[in-house]
Amino acid sequence: MKKLINRPADVVREMLEGIVALAPGLALLDKENVVLRADLPVIADRPVALISGGGAGHEPAHAGYVGPGMLTAAVTGEVFTSPSVDAVLAAIRASAGPAGALLIVKNYTGDRLNFGLAGELAAIEGIPTELVVVADDVALSGLVPRDRRRGIAGTVLVHKIAGAAAASGKSLKEVAAIAQSAASRLGTMGVALGACIVPAAGKAGFTLADDEIELGLGIHGEKGVERTKHLPADAITDRIIGQIVTDMQLASGSRVALLINGLGATPPMELAVVARCAIASLRSRGLGIERAWSGNFLTALEMPGCSISLLDLNESDFELLDAETSATAWPQGGAISEAPHIVRVANIPENETPLGDVGRFAPHDLRRIGLAVCDALEASEAHLAELDSKAGDGDLGASMLRGAEAIRALPESAWINPANALIAIGNALRRAIAGSSGPFYAIALTRAGRHLGESNRFSPEDFRTALAIGIAAISEIGGAKPGDRTMLDALDPALRALEAAGIKVPAAKAWKQAAAAAAEGARRTADMIPKLGRASYLGERALGTQDGGAAAVAIWMEALATSL
User: What is this structure's pTM?
Assistant: First the structure.
């Protein structure tokens, strides 16, 4: 187990101390794991207190929602363990006044018992309390009665709505009724791509094969209700949306709020992909999306995956959802546009044949060679990604795949001769591949193509010169030279092999010799210490692995030589 903690037994208290240290508006009880507002008025003047909580491991819930307009206090138990009765009672005593306290809990036995009993004890002391239980997990539909479903991420929306109602001065009965109404119109379902590790346990709660996922899980690192094969994000998202909509019986024309919640290890990139599909899926069903948020709201430690929540809105919800709050974890906003704003990029020629009909060549043969290169790069995507991940950022395979797809899409007019083809390919790669690979290939191919166009000949000598010009361009703009462990360490041996072959060796044989030299050059990069690029940050740790850029050169050059 690798975690940034000290002792597992101290992790909850130390976490809360860190949260409070970063937020001047929060305070921490000295003897209980309770975070509360530091700016509370005198007891007699306090509005209805809103108190929630549960086990740790769900951060930013619940302490992140403490602040004006949301929770008054949050009670934290050990990881995935309900807080004690005494801790909840301490939170009530510290935060509530004569107006009383609303306790919002997720539908787990420990939370219901401990919060419920604490409320009873507080009532004996003269502090009125109400309890609202959230049971929003639609994955349990058909397995247990609705009132026995788990409470999961949709609870955060209840916090927001009830917190705004309490801040407006409503009575305890009114706030409780508003919270209960929101909870009854809420549905959530989650998916996990892997398990999490509870610090005290030191190992994952379950294991998944590389091609498996868990659908319909809770928030405590447990398995879901179904294990299935991994699916594309759109298929997973649409299935979850479909189950929520069906369970909640949302008819076309219904208006909803959408919450995309990360479970702890899911990057914003993937949550945005899910949000994109969720919005499209809801709109395709005739549902109006009035508010939407995406981020980590209620997690399960470092579990990879997400949940989706829908709130069937009524008119009073809008004002409460939009009300101001200074709780640090609430993202504000939530309004979305009716359709994405897509602005067309101007002044990009659709079909570039920059040199016209220069010289003569067989376009079909030329395109056949280009497609052979595409085939080789596409087949090598995983291999190149693996090489690049060992010494770089791992995106080379995907970059070469995008490049191959861009070459395939070139119009027939691009292949009328080698000069046009090289420039057209260079322009296509410039657009398709970001990072460094795209510009390197673009300038090399463009300069090589210009040379062929200016010479108006396509002799073996012209192609050798064009290759030399392209290699020089890469060295010029990148600053690399042979021996620096870059793509040049495959290109330069290939050029020298062509030059050594001269005019006496048939062109097809000469290019096969060049391809062999490129492959050997790429292999030798495994023994070189990188001097440029991301790999240079690794120093000697990069030894033993070929440079991905050089390996890519060897792959496409072998395909080119084989197809001649």
Answer: 0.82
